[in-house]
Amino acid sequence: MQDDLFTGNNQPQQFGATAYYLPGFVEQSAPSIIEAVRSCVRQAPLRHFSTPGGRKMSVLSSNCGEYGWVSDNKGYRYQQLDPVTERPWPEMPQVIKKAAIAAAKDCGFSQFEPDACLINVYSTGAAMGLHQDKDESDFSQPIVSFSFGLPVTFLWGGSRRTTKPAKIELKHGDVLVWGGESRLHFHGVKALAEGHHTLTSNVRINLTLRKR
Ligand SMILES: O=C(O)CCC(=O)C(=O)O
Ligand SMILES: [Mn+2]
Question: Average pLDDT of 40-48?
Fold first, then answer.
């Protein structure tokens, strides 16, 4: 049974008021999740989004699910059609959706209904600056974030940009869940260091699951 793939017996480690680290939660299901991601990006190709300010993001992105997060000179938003293919985003693979719901539940968010999964692929040097996830309409829904492949330093800030962030070393198969009063905390990732991973080669894959 699919659910047996989730190592849900690891106790979540709290790193914020309602923010949790689940080491290795998706390690066993990683091969099937990564295969599902490959299928998605064959249908909706990876691309560098531009920020509203006109800067190209260093990470390569795509989406699966009913809605996809996009960014261009008109702003950040969710939309049902991929602006590149002008088609709906690929359906969210069940192996991804089920793992995210299970992770959220383990952290006390039993009503998580993800309808958007942002796929981020980091190559050497790619990073994400401190930001808040605030393009969603219902902040009572948490954020669930999967890491695969190369390790990276995740930055966990406060509710203001000026708070010095804490560092969390994320490795293959780790999951972060944050919601409730931690939902709008600033976060980001440091530049990816060069390396090799058997399942992802020279990149890190992040999946960020949210309800739009
Ligand atoms: O890559 C990560 O771990 C974080 C990604 C993220 O915060 C985002 O896409 O909003
Ligand atoms: Mn984010």
Answer: 98
77 assigned binding-site residue: yes
Banded pLDDT at 3 (limits 50, 70, 90): very low
Q: Which residue reads 């994320």 in tokens?
A: 170
Q: How many CB atoms lie within 10 A of CB 111?
A: 11
* 1 alpha carbon – ligand 2 mean position (Å): 31
Q: Which CATH number fits domain 2-210: 2.60.120.590, 3.90.580.10, 3.40.50.280, 3.40.47.10?
A: 2.60.120.590
Q: Residue 206 C-alpha to ligand 1 middle, in angstroms?
A: 7
The confidence score (pLDDT) of residue 1 equals 36
pLDDT in tens, 96-151: 999 999 999 999 999 999 999 999 999 999 999 999 999 999 999 999 999 999 99
